[in-house]
Amino acid sequence: MCTQNQCVGSSLITMYAKCDSLEDAYRTFNEAKDQFNVVAWASMLTTFKQHGHGDKVIKLFDEIVDLEIDPNYITFVSVLSACNHNGFINQGFRYYACMVDLLGRAGLLDEATQFIDAMPIQLDSFVWGALLVACRKFRNSELSSKVAQKLFRIESHMKQPRLLTQAQNIQYPPSTGDCFTT
C-alpha cells in the first residue's frame, strides 16, 4: 500500500513519461526517492525502459537491491526487458538467476522451475546453481538430482567449473535415500 504522497509521486512519474518528458519524470523521482516505495521505483524503471535507456534501468535496479527494497514483478519485467532490448546478455543472466534465487529462497521451488522453463534464453550455470542451492536448503532430493544433471551437462566441458563442485558435494547416503548431509 502506498501513502498519498507515494501514489501522487508515482502517478507524476508515469504522467511525465507518457508525455515524453523524461527529465521531469526523473527530477520528480530524484527529489523524493528516499520516501518512495517499490511502486515509484518501478514507475521510474518502466519510464527508462520505455525510452530505451537500458543502462539507466540496470543502474536503478542495482540501487533498489543495494537499498534492500524488495523488487516486485514490474521491476523484474522492466530490468529483464531492458536487458533483452539493449543486448545486455550478461546482465540478463544475472537477473534471471536473481529471480530464481528469490523464488528458491522463499521455498517456491515449483514456481522457480516454471520460471526457468519459461525463460526465452539459453540457461547458464548461475540459474541452475540458484535452484540447486534452494533444493538443498529445502531438502528436495528429486529436483536437486535433475538440476545437478543439467549443471553437469553445462559445466562438464569447462576447465574450471564454477558450480559443478557444489553439485558434487551433495551426497546420497544409501540407507536413507536422502541426498542431503546433515
UniProtKB/TrEMBL annotation:
One of its GO terms (molecular function) is RNA binding. Transmembrane segments: none annotated. GO terms for biological process: RNA modification. Pfam families: PPR, PPR_3. It comes from the Eukaryota. InterPro entries: PPR_At4g14850-like_plant, PPR_rpt, TPR-like_helical_dom_sf. PPR repeats lie at residues 37-71. Keywords: Repeat. This is Pentatricopeptide repeat-containing protein.
